[in-house]
Amino acid sequence: MRKILNPRMSSLSAGLPVLSLVLIGCSSPERTIDIEVTQVYAAEPVLGERAALYFTVINSGSSTDELLSVSTPVAGVAEIHRTIKDGDLMKMMPVQRLLAPAGTQLQLLPGGNHVMLLELRRRLSPGDRFDATLHFRHAGEVTVRGLVLSYADLEEKLTAAQPED
To answer: Which structural domain, as residue segments, surrounds residue 105?
Structure first.
């Protein structure tokens, strides 16, 4: 059996190595993502059905990343929230993502950004620990271990961790 070469295909395949070299030569400098998550705490639920999760994301890489979602086996739903002032009231609003700019820290704190753990699947008491997975656009999944604290202990820990002005 005789093979008949398509002249268009042979000229296309001959140009691929050159095209590859051109694309490689035009690539941008490598940007790195280096994400670390610290101070992972949940406030003891007041009513038992929902809790707030707080943590600090340290991005020591050279590229901005985005926290897209959080999941945990202790809650049916985990929503990223931002607290905003609306007149004299403070409101929580779900957001699609939080930015973690390169070389900075993204802090999720009471009265600010936080993750609401809704539809709790078990009671959370001070001293309990649980896993949560943070889903970043570039860094991928980062699994952390959270510690449940009473609200008073939570405020004390987070205040002690804040840099002084």
So the answer is: 35-161
Task: Give the global pTM.
Answer: 0.77
Distance (Å, whole) CA 103 – CA 86: 31
CATH number at residue 123: 2.60.40.1890
The total domain count for the chain is 1
Question: Taking a C-beta distance cutoff of 8 angstroms, is the pair 93, 137 a contact?
Answer: no
Distance from the Cα of residue 41 to its chain's centroid: 15
Task: Read off the tokens for 135.
Answer: 């889903």
Q: Output the 3-class SS for 33-81.
A: CCEEEEEEEEECCCCCCEEEEEEEEEECCCCCEEEEEEECCCEEEEEEE
Q: Mean pLDDT across the chain, nearest whole number?
A: 83
